[in-house]
Write a structure and sequence with these properties.
Layout lengths: L1 H6 L8 H9 L1 E3 L3 H17 L2 E12 L4 E12 L3 E8 L3 E6 L2 E6 L4 E6 L4 H11 L2 H4 L3 E10 L2 E10 L2 H4 L2 E9 L5 E8 L4 E11 L17 E4 L3
Parallel strand pairs: 7-13
Antiparallel strand pairs: 1-8, 2-3, 2-12, 3-4, 4-5, 5-6, 6-7, 8-9, 9-10, 10-11, 11-12
């Protein structure tokens, strides 16, 4: 279950050489005024976002074997509490979150898994980053801000280390980059407590455009097996 849930979110690095190259182009922001200005810009923009869609490519390195899994697909969000991930490669899989309930539809297995978001600290932590102001979200982390160039654009790069024990059980660190021009997400990187590393790169991001709510449907096909993990 955990490995499937982990696949649903954003967030993370192709390989150590790529990460090193990225970090070499970033400089830590020491000035408090600059830090506060960046946070204010992002929070003001975040407050104006009601819908968001994007394409993504996700790479995950699994330790200790250094095996790499690659997947791609699309993401949609509508405030306050609708989320959808559509994985097209390597297999058709759709994840829908409606408020506190989640559904994983696996077409190849003809199977649907149902789970409670509030009972999964890891997923709850990731979704909070989309639904809460950044200032509230950062309370759970020791946050360091970097500024520099990533993918040929100037970014704000936040590195977050959990300061709560329940989150430390799942996450060692989380990093998210935002374009300084558009304030849209560029990439995210997650290091799990197991050492597994995931990186997501976003593209074709659209904000506040009409969304077909049918893509958030949780109707389960009659021929699908249902696994209900809610307690």
């Amino acid at each position: 279950m955990k490995s499937i849930i982990v696949k649903t979110v954003f967030l993370f690095s192709l390989c150590s050489s790529l990460v090193t190259a990225q970090e070499d182009s970033l400089k830590q922001v020491i000035d408090t005024a600059e830090y506060e200005q960046a946070l204010m810009r992002l929070q003001e923009f975040h407050a104006t976002v009601t819908t968001l869609t994007a394409q993504f490519v996700q790479d995950k390195i699994i330790v200790p074997f250094n095996d790499m899994e690659e997947s791609s697909g699309s993401f949609a969000m509508k405030k306050p509490a609708l989320f959808m991930w559509q994985f097209n490669v390597p297999e058709q899989q759709k994840v829908v979150i409606k408020e506190e309930r989640g559904y994983i539809f696996n077409d190849s297995l003809k199977q649907t898994q149902i789970f409670s978001v509030e009972e999964n600290n890891f997923l709850d932590f990731l979704l909070a980053g989309l639904s809460k102001p950044l200032g509230e979200y950062f309370v759970n982390f020791n946050v360091t801000l970097f500024s520099g160039i990533e993918n040929e654009q100037k970014v704000y790069h936040y590195k977050m280390i959990p300061n709560k024990e329940d989150l430390k059980n799942y996450v060692s660190s989380c990093e998210v980059s935002f374009s300084q021009d558009t304030l849209l997400p560029v990439s995210a990187r997650l290091v799990e407590s197991s050492g597994d590393v995931t990186r997501i790169r976003f593209s074709d991001i659209k904000v506040n455009e009409p969304i077909d709510e049918a893509q958030f449907s949780t109707v389960i096909p009659s021929d699908y097996e249902v696994l209900d993990y809610r307690q």
